[in-house]
Protein backbone atom coordinates (compact mmCIF):
# COMPACT_ATOMS: atom_id res chain seq x y z
CA UNK A 1 0.00 0.00 0.00
CA UNK A 2 1.21 3.48 -0.88
CA UNK A 3 0.01 6.77 0.60
CA UNK A 4 0.91 10.10 -0.95
CA UNK A 5 1.13 13.02 1.48
CA UNK A 6 0.91 16.54 0.09
CA UNK A 7 3.01 18.84 2.28
CA UNK A 8 6.44 18.24 3.77
CA UNK A 9 6.09 19.64 7.28
CA UNK A 10 6.43 18.02 10.69
CA UNK A 11 3.04 16.30 10.45
CA UNK A 12 4.19 14.39 7.37
CA UNK A 13 7.47 13.66 9.16
CA UNK A 14 5.64 12.13 12.11
CA UNK A 15 3.57 9.92 9.81
CA UNK A 16 6.76 8.15 8.69
CA UNK A 17 7.30 5.87 11.75
CA UNK A 18 3.62 4.88 11.76
CA UNK A 19 3.79 4.06 8.04
CA UNK A 20 6.96 1.99 8.49
CA UNK A 21 5.38 -0.02 11.30
CA UNK A 22 2.27 -0.73 9.21
CA UNK A 23 4.30 -1.71 6.16
CA UNK A 24 2.98 1.26 4.22
CA UNK A 25 5.09 3.15 1.71
CA UNK A 26 4.84 6.87 2.32
CA UNK A 27 5.57 9.35 -0.44
CA UNK A 28 5.71 13.08 0.27
CA UNK A 29 5.29 16.06 -2.05
CA UNK A 30 7.38 18.67 -0.23
CA UNK A 31 7.30 22.39 -0.92
CA UNK A 32 11.08 22.81 -0.71
CA UNK A 33 14.28 20.82 -0.46
CA UNK A 34 15.33 20.05 3.10
CA UNK A 35 11.78 19.93 4.42
CA UNK A 36 10.92 18.47 7.80
CA UNK A 37 9.66 15.32 6.03
CA UNK A 38 12.72 15.04 3.76
CA UNK A 39 13.18 11.37 4.72
CA UNK A 40 10.09 10.50 2.70
CA UNK A 41 10.09 13.36 0.20
CA UNK A 42 9.94 11.72 -3.21
CA UNK A 43 9.09 14.98 -4.97
CA UNK A 44 9.53 18.69 -4.47
CA UNK A 45 7.07 21.02 -6.12
CA UNK A 46 4.17 23.42 -5.94
CA UNK A 47 0.92 21.84 -4.74
CA UNK A 48 -0.94 24.69 -6.48
CA UNK A 49 0.20 23.29 -9.85
CA UNK A 50 -2.12 20.58 -11.20
CA UNK A 51 0.45 18.84 -13.37
CA UNK A 52 2.89 18.62 -10.45
CA UNK A 53 0.24 17.03 -8.25
CA UNK A 54 -0.96 14.65 -10.98
CA UNK A 55 2.57 13.41 -11.53
CA UNK A 56 3.05 12.93 -7.79
CA UNK A 57 -0.10 10.84 -7.26
CA UNK A 58 0.69 8.30 -9.97
CA UNK A 59 0.67 4.82 -8.42
CA UNK A 60 -0.54 5.79 -4.95
CA UNK A 61 -3.47 4.05 -3.26
CA UNK A 62 -4.63 7.17 -1.44
CA UNK A 63 -3.72 10.81 -0.96
CA UNK A 64 -3.78 12.72 2.31
CA UNK A 65 -2.34 15.98 3.63
CA UNK A 66 0.11 17.68 5.95
CA UNK A 67 -2.02 20.86 5.73
CA UNK A 68 -5.40 22.06 4.39
CA UNK A 69 -4.18 24.45 1.71
CA UNK A 70 -4.43 22.41 -1.51
CA UNK A 71 -6.88 24.26 -3.80
CA UNK A 72 -10.35 22.81 -4.21
CA UNK A 73 -9.95 22.80 -7.98
CA UNK A 74 -7.00 20.42 -7.73
CA UNK A 75 -8.67 18.21 -5.13
CA UNK A 76 -11.77 17.83 -7.29
CA UNK A 77 -9.72 17.07 -10.39
CA UNK A 78 -7.97 14.28 -8.49
CA UNK A 79 -11.31 12.80 -7.45
CA UNK A 80 -12.63 13.09 -11.00
CA UNK A 81 -9.64 11.06 -12.18
CA UNK A 82 -10.36 8.29 -9.68
CA UNK A 83 -7.75 9.18 -7.05
CA UNK A 84 -8.76 8.30 -3.48
CA UNK A 85 -8.46 11.60 -1.59
CA UNK A 86 -8.89 11.55 2.21
CA UNK A 87 -10.30 13.69 3.59
CA UNK A 88 -12.17 14.46 0.38
CA UNK A 89 -12.75 17.96 -0.97
CA UNK A 90 -16.36 18.06 0.25
CA UNK A 91 -15.11 17.62 3.83
CA UNK A 92 -11.84 19.54 3.54
CA UNK A 93 -13.72 22.62 2.36
CA UNK A 94 -14.86 23.21 5.93
CA UNK A 95 -11.31 23.23 7.25
CA UNK A 96 -10.21 25.58 4.46
CA UNK A 97 -12.96 28.19 4.69
CA UNK A 98 -14.09 29.38 8.11
CA UNK A 99 -17.27 30.97 6.77
CA UNK A 100 -18.29 27.74 5.08
CA UNK A 101 -17.44 25.92 8.29
CA UNK A 102 -19.66 28.14 10.43
CA UNK A 103 -22.56 27.81 8.00
CA UNK A 104 -22.32 24.01 7.89
CA UNK A 105 -21.91 23.61 11.64
CA UNK A 106 -24.95 25.81 12.17
CA UNK A 107 -26.93 23.40 9.96
CA UNK A 108 -25.64 20.53 12.12
CA UNK A 109 -26.79 22.44 15.23
CA UNK A 110 -23.32 22.35 16.76
CA UNK A 111 -22.75 24.90 19.57
CA UNK A 112 -20.64 27.86 18.44
CA UNK A 113 -19.95 31.48 19.31
CA UNK A 114 -22.30 34.04 17.74
CA UNK A 115 -20.89 34.91 14.32
CA UNK A 116 -21.62 36.77 11.11
CA UNK A 117 -20.30 37.17 7.59
CA UNK A 118 -19.27 40.75 6.96
CA UNK A 119 -18.19 42.59 3.84
CA UNK A 120 -18.17 46.22 4.92
CA UNK A 121 -17.49 48.52 7.86
CA UNK A 122 -21.15 49.12 8.60
CA UNK A 123 -21.85 45.42 9.10
CA UNK A 124 -18.84 45.08 11.40
CA UNK A 125 -19.83 48.09 13.49
CA UNK A 126 -23.37 46.71 13.78
CA UNK A 127 -22.05 43.36 15.06
CA UNK A 128 -19.76 45.14 17.53
CA UNK A 129 -22.65 47.20 18.83
CA UNK A 130 -24.65 44.04 19.46
CA UNK A 131 -21.78 42.19 21.20
CA UNK A 132 -20.33 44.53 23.80
CA UNK A 133 -18.09 46.60 21.53
CA UNK A 134 -15.35 43.99 20.96
CA UNK A 135 -15.19 40.94 18.72
CA UNK A 136 -12.84 38.50 17.03
CA UNK A 137 -12.27 39.08 13.33
CA UNK A 138 -10.90 36.32 11.10
CA UNK A 139 -9.95 35.97 7.48
CA UNK A 140 -12.05 33.21 5.94
CA UNK A 141 -9.04 31.35 4.57
CA UNK A 142 -5.33 30.96 5.20
CA UNK A 143 -5.00 31.63 8.93
CA UNK A 144 -3.08 29.44 11.39
CA UNK A 145 -1.22 29.75 14.71
CA UNK A 146 -2.83 33.10 15.45
CA UNK A 147 -2.36 34.51 11.94
CA UNK A 148 -5.45 35.86 10.21
CA UNK A 149 -7.07 36.61 13.57
CA UNK A 150 -7.39 39.87 15.45
CA UNK A 151 -9.55 41.39 18.18
CA UNK A 152 -11.26 44.61 17.07
CA UNK A 153 -13.31 47.28 18.80
CA UNK A 154 -14.21 49.30 15.70
CA UNK A 155 -14.24 48.91 11.93
CA UNK A 156 -11.21 51.21 11.81
CA UNK A 157 -9.20 48.34 13.27
CA UNK A 158 -10.05 46.24 10.24
CA UNK A 159 -9.71 48.84 7.50
CA UNK A 160 -6.83 47.02 5.79
CA UNK A 161 -8.68 43.69 5.65
CA UNK A 162 -11.96 45.31 4.55
CA UNK A 163 -10.11 47.09 1.74
CA UNK A 164 -9.24 43.71 0.20
CA UNK A 165 -12.88 43.21 -0.74
CA UNK A 166 -13.08 39.66 0.67
CA UNK A 167 -15.80 38.53 3.07
CA UNK A 168 -14.64 38.18 6.67
CA UNK A 169 -15.83 36.18 9.65
CA UNK A 170 -16.63 38.04 12.86
CA UNK A 171 -17.32 36.20 16.10
CA UNK A 172 -18.29 37.19 19.61
CA UNK A 173 -15.38 37.52 22.01
CA UNK A 174 -16.05 34.48 24.15
CA UNK A 175 -15.36 34.55 27.87
CA UNK A 176 -13.75 31.16 28.39
CA UNK A 177 -11.97 29.48 31.28
CA UNK A 178 -9.81 27.25 29.07
CA UNK A 179 -9.34 25.83 25.59
CA UNK A 180 -9.95 22.15 24.90
CA UNK A 181 -9.50 19.89 21.91
CA UNK A 182 -11.29 16.68 21.00
CA UNK A 183 -9.56 14.44 18.46
CA UNK A 184 -11.29 11.56 16.72
CA UNK A 185 -10.34 9.30 13.84
CA UNK A 186 -12.86 8.00 11.31
CA UNK A 187 -12.70 5.67 8.34
CA UNK A 188 -15.05 5.61 5.32
CA UNK A 189 -17.18 2.81 6.82
CA UNK A 190 -18.16 5.20 9.61
CA UNK A 191 -16.10 3.51 12.34
CA UNK A 192 -14.95 6.21 14.74
CA UNK A 193 -12.60 6.25 17.73
CA UNK A 194 -11.77 9.09 20.11
CA UNK A 195 -8.85 10.04 22.31
CA UNK A 196 -9.52 11.77 25.64
CA UNK A 197 -10.46 15.43 25.43
CA UNK A 198 -7.35 17.51 26.21
CA UNK A 199 -6.58 20.96 27.56
CA UNK A 200 -4.56 23.21 25.26
CA UNK A 201 -2.56 26.11 26.69
CA UNK A 202 -1.98 28.89 24.17
CA UNK A 203 0.46 31.80 24.11
CA UNK A 204 0.15 34.52 21.44
CA UNK A 205 -2.15 32.25 19.43
CA UNK A 206 0.31 29.34 19.47
CA UNK A 207 -0.21 26.09 21.36
CA UNK A 208 2.56 25.69 23.95
CA UNK A 209 1.29 22.83 26.15
CA UNK A 210 -1.28 20.04 26.05
CA UNK A 211 -2.55 18.04 29.02
CA UNK A 212 -4.29 14.70 28.44
CA UNK A 213 -6.88 14.16 29.64
CA UNK A 214 -8.02 17.70 30.39
CA UNK A 215 -8.15 18.06 34.19
CA UNK A 216 -11.67 17.79 35.66
CA UNK A 217 -13.12 16.70 32.32
CA UNK A 218 -14.46 13.25 33.25
CA UNK A 219 -18.20 12.99 32.84
CA UNK A 220 -20.19 15.80 31.23
CA UNK A 221 -17.30 17.69 29.59
CA UNK A 222 -15.86 14.53 28.01
CA UNK A 223 -19.29 13.34 26.90
CA UNK A 224 -20.27 16.65 25.29
CA UNK A 225 -16.89 17.06 23.58
CA UNK A 226 -17.17 13.58 22.09
CA UNK A 227 -20.75 14.15 20.96
CA UNK A 228 -19.74 17.38 19.20
CA UNK A 229 -16.79 15.77 17.40
CA UNK A 230 -18.81 12.69 16.44
CA UNK A 231 -21.56 14.88 14.98
CA UNK A 232 -19.06 16.92 12.96
CA UNK A 233 -17.06 13.92 11.70
CA UNK A 234 -20.17 12.11 10.52
CA UNK A 235 -21.95 15.18 9.24
CA UNK A 236 -18.99 16.33 7.15
CA UNK A 237 -17.86 12.85 6.08
CA UNK A 238 -14.35 13.23 7.48
CA UNK A 239 -11.82 10.45 6.84
CA UNK A 240 -8.73 10.22 9.04
CA UNK A 241 -8.13 12.48 12.03
CA UNK A 242 -10.44 15.35 12.91
CA UNK A 243 -9.41 17.87 15.57
CA UNK A 244 -12.17 20.01 17.07
CA UNK A 245 -10.84 22.98 19.04
CA UNK A 246 -13.26 24.07 21.76
CA UNK A 247 -13.83 26.86 24.23
CA UNK A 248 -15.04 25.88 27.69
CA UNK A 249 -16.90 29.02 28.70
CA UNK A 250 -17.19 30.57 32.14
CA UNK A 251 -20.85 29.47 32.18
CA UNK A 252 -19.80 25.86 31.46
CA UNK A 253 -20.71 25.57 27.78
CA UNK A 254 -18.52 24.01 25.09
CA UNK A 255 -18.30 26.01 21.85
CA UNK A 256 -16.51 25.04 18.64
CA UNK A 257 -13.65 27.37 17.77
CA UNK A 258 -11.75 25.74 14.86
CA UNK A 259 -11.50 22.48 12.89
CA UNK A 260 -8.53 20.63 11.43
CA UNK A 261 -8.80 17.51 9.25
CA UNK A 262 -5.35 16.01 9.74
CA UNK A 263 -3.13 15.15 12.69
CA UNK A 264 -3.03 18.13 15.02
CA UNK A 265 -0.64 19.73 17.49
CA UNK A 266 -2.99 18.87 20.36
CA UNK A 267 -2.65 15.19 19.49
CA UNK A 268 1.15 14.88 19.48
CA UNK A 269 1.04 13.43 23.01
CA UNK A 270 -0.58 10.30 21.52
CA UNK A 271 2.74 9.25 19.93
CA UNK A 272 3.95 8.11 23.34
CA UNK A 273 0.90 8.40 25.60
CA UNK A 274 -1.69 6.34 23.72
CA UNK A 275 -1.82 2.77 22.46
CA UNK A 276 -2.38 4.08 18.92
CA UNK A 277 -1.10 7.51 17.92
CA UNK A 278 -3.05 10.02 15.89
CA UNK A 279 -0.60 9.48 13.04
CA UNK A 280 -1.17 5.74 12.87
CA UNK A 281 -4.94 6.05 13.09
CA UNK A 282 -4.89 8.76 10.44
CA UNK A 283 -3.12 6.41 8.03
CA UNK A 284 -5.44 3.56 8.98
CA UNK A 285 -8.48 5.74 8.34
CA UNK A 286 -7.15 6.99 5.01
CA UNK A 287 -6.67 3.40 3.81
CA UNK A 288 -9.94 2.14 5.31
CA UNK A 289 -8.15 -0.15 7.78
CA UNK A 290 -9.62 -1.00 11.20
CA UNK A 291 -8.77 1.72 13.70
CA UNK A 292 -6.51 1.16 16.69
CA UNK A 293 -7.15 1.55 20.40
CA UNK A 294 -6.98 5.10 21.75
CA UNK A 295 -6.50 3.96 25.34
CA UNK A 296 -3.92 5.91 27.35
CA UNK A 297 -0.71 4.39 28.71
CA UNK A 298 -0.80 6.32 31.99
CA UNK A 299 -3.21 8.51 33.96
CA UNK A 300 -1.55 11.69 32.63
CA UNK A 301 0.27 12.62 29.44
CA UNK A 302 1.62 16.04 28.52
CA UNK A 303 3.18 17.62 25.46
CA UNK A 304 5.21 20.81 25.56
CA UNK A 305 6.20 22.47 22.29
CA UNK A 306 9.80 23.54 21.69
CA UNK A 307 9.76 27.04 20.21
CA UNK A 308 12.92 28.45 18.69
CA UNK A 309 14.99 30.46 21.15
CA UNK A 310 18.67 31.10 21.84
CA UNK A 311 19.83 27.50 21.31
CA UNK A 312 20.77 26.87 17.66
CA UNK A 313 22.01 23.28 17.85
CA UNK A 314 19.12 21.20 19.16
CA UNK A 315 20.91 17.90 18.61
CA UNK A 316 23.79 19.03 20.82
CA UNK A 317 21.29 20.19 23.45
CA UNK A 318 19.77 16.70 23.48
CA UNK A 319 22.85 15.35 25.27
CA UNK A 320 21.94 17.48 28.29
CA UNK A 321 18.16 17.10 27.96
CA UNK A 322 18.11 13.31 27.70
CA UNK A 323 20.01 13.05 30.98
CA UNK A 324 17.23 14.89 32.84
CA UNK A 325 14.64 12.11 32.92
CA UNK A 326 14.83 8.67 31.32
CA UNK A 327 11.06 8.77 30.78
CA UNK A 328 11.07 11.84 28.51
CA UNK A 329 10.28 11.38 24.83
CA UNK A 330 11.93 13.91 22.50
CA UNK A 331 10.62 14.74 19.01
CA UNK A 332 12.68 17.16 16.90
CA UNK A 333 11.41 18.27 13.50
CA UNK A 334 14.67 18.76 11.59
CA UNK A 335 13.99 22.48 11.18
CA UNK A 336 16.33 25.43 11.37
CA UNK A 337 15.81 27.34 14.61
CA UNK A 338 13.99 30.65 14.31
CA UNK A 339 12.51 32.68 17.19
CA UNK A 340 9.04 31.37 18.06
CA UNK A 341 9.10 28.64 15.42
CA UNK A 342 7.85 25.18 16.38
CA UNK A 343 10.98 23.03 16.06
CA UNK A 344 9.96 20.05 18.16
CA UNK A 345 8.11 18.89 21.22
CA UNK A 346 8.64 16.88 24.39
CA UNK A 347 6.22 14.23 25.66
CA UNK A 348 6.03 12.85 29.18
CA UNK A 349 3.54 10.61 30.91
CA UNK A 350 3.03 9.13 34.35
CA UNK A 351 0.88 9.03 37.47
CA UNK A 352 1.52 12.55 38.80
CA UNK A 353 0.55 15.48 36.58
CA UNK A 354 2.78 18.01 38.37
CA UNK A 355 5.80 15.74 37.97
CA UNK A 356 5.35 15.04 34.26
CA UNK A 357 4.65 18.70 33.52
CA UNK A 358 7.71 19.85 35.44
CA UNK A 359 9.93 17.33 33.68
CA UNK A 360 8.71 18.26 30.19
CA UNK A 361 8.91 21.99 30.89
CA UNK A 362 12.47 21.70 32.16
CA UNK A 363 13.50 19.82 29.01
CA UNK A 364 11.89 22.39 26.73
CA UNK A 365 13.47 25.29 28.64
CA UNK A 366 16.89 23.77 27.97
CA UNK A 367 16.13 23.37 24.28
CA UNK A 368 14.98 26.97 24.08
CA UNK A 369 17.47 28.73 26.37
CA UNK A 370 20.16 26.26 27.41
CA UNK A 371 20.95 25.06 30.95
CA UNK A 372 21.27 28.62 32.28
CA UNK A 373 17.98 29.82 30.81
CA UNK A 374 16.13 26.83 32.18
CA UNK A 375 16.37 28.32 35.67
CA UNK A 376 16.00 31.97 34.74
State the CATH superfamily name of the largest domain.
ATP-grasp fold, B domain
Distance between the termini: 50 Å
Given as residue ranges, the uncertain stretches (5+ residues, pLDDT < 50) are none
Give the CATH class of the largest domain.
Answer: Alpha Beta
- According to CATH, what is the topology of the largest domain? D-amino Acid Aminotransferase, Chain A, domain 1
How many structural domains? 3
Q: Element order, helices and strands? A: EHEEHEHHHEHEEHEEEEEHEEHHEHEEH
The geometry reads as globular
Description:
The chain has helices at residues 10-22, 50-56, 72-80, 89-96, 98-107, 121-130, 159-162, 220-236, 270-273, 278-287, 314-321, 353-373; strands at 2-6, 25-30, 41-44, 62-65, 115-118, 135-139, 149-152, 168-172, 176-186, 192-194, 198-203, 206-212, 240-249, 254-260, 300-307, 329-332, 342-350. It has 376 residues and is of the alpha+beta class. Helix 1 links the parallel strand 1 (2-6) and strand 2. The mean pLDDT is 94.
